[in-house]
Amino acid sequence: MLKIDAAIKTILLIVAHPDDETLWAGGTMLSHPTLKWFVICLCRGQDEDRAPRFYKALKMLNAQGCMGDLDDGPEQKPLDEQHVAETILELLPAMHVDLIISHSPSGEYTRHRRHEEIGQAVIKLWHARKLSTNEYWAFAYEDGDKGYFPRAIKKAPVSHVLPDPIWQKKYELVTNIYGFETGSWEAQTTPRTEAFWCFRNAHDATTWLEQCPTD
Questions:
Q1: Which stretches does DSSP call E strand in 88-199?
Q2: Which ranges in the chain belong to alpha helices (H)?
Q3: Does 147 fall in a domain?
Q4: Peptide bond before 111: cis, by omega within 30 degrees of 0?
Q5: In this predicted structure, what is the pLDDT of residue 215?
Q6: Strand 63-70 vs strand 158-161: parallel, antiparallel, or unpaired?
Q7: What is the pLDDT of residue 35?
Q8: Does the model's pTM come out above 0.85?
Q9: Do residues 195 and 140 lie in contact, with contact meaning Cβ atoms separated by under 8 Å?
């Protein structure tokens, strides 16, 4: 099981959609129920189906959270960078944060623009000292340019295989709480291994951002 540093007590996840917290970090959350988890979900806050499911999932994950309502239409038009940043800041909880976890600036698969925009915004806000944290992790997954379902990147500094009982709980969140059919992309994706890129200072994270393939 992944061992999170004992100094880390409060963790903030910043994700694009209801289910992102479960797909990419649900096993880590389930494995550390005594930590204080807070999840900011930036899209679908007014979605009458997915928003209630998000809060049910948080209850199962022993977490708190809130939602925004950034545009998430199927055409995936680029969002204004400042608007994304302001929305994140508006939703920040009034708590000290030891660790922030969010999307990779390149996303987790080919492709979802909202994942990429939010991953980029979080790093830039940290670098600008508008987000405060001792450590930052980014989801580390790839899909071989749509060649297979997203999988953990082996060379990521943090990577752990979920024990079967933890993975089963995570899978049940995806299928029972979020309601995805067993043959859906989400259910078939549900990673058994979770991985993260890790940074202890904003300078290194910003250098990494500049090297990530984005457009």
A1: 99-102, 135-139, 141-142, 151-152, 158-161, 193-199
A2: 20-31, 50-60, 81-91, 113-127, 164-172, 185-189, 202-211
A3: yes
A4: yes
A5: 61
A6: unpaired
A7: 97
A8: yes
A9: yes
Give domain status of residue 3, yes or no: no
Return the pLDDT at 214.
67
28: left (phi over 0), alpha (psi -120 to 50) or beta: alpha
CA–CA distance, 62 with 3 (Å, rounded to integer):
18
Within-domain flag for 72 = yes
Q: What CATH number does the domain containing 15 carry?
A: 3.40.50.10320
What local confidence, expressed as pLDDT, does residue 213 receive? Answer: 76
pLDDT at 3: 76
**Domains held by the chain: number:** 1
Span 68-124, pLDDT tens digits: 999 999 888 999 999 999 999 999 999 999 999 999 999 999 999 999 999 999 999
Instruction: Report the alpha-carbon distance of residue 49 to residue 120 in Å, rounded.
Output: 28
Strand partners, 39: 13, 65
Q: At what angle do helices 202-211 and 113-127 cross, to 10 degrees?
A: 140
Q: Give a yes or no: residue 75 inside a domain.
A: yes
Question: In terms of residue numbers, what domain contains 180?
Answer: 10-209
Q: Residue 133 carries which side chain, given as an amino acid letter?
A: T
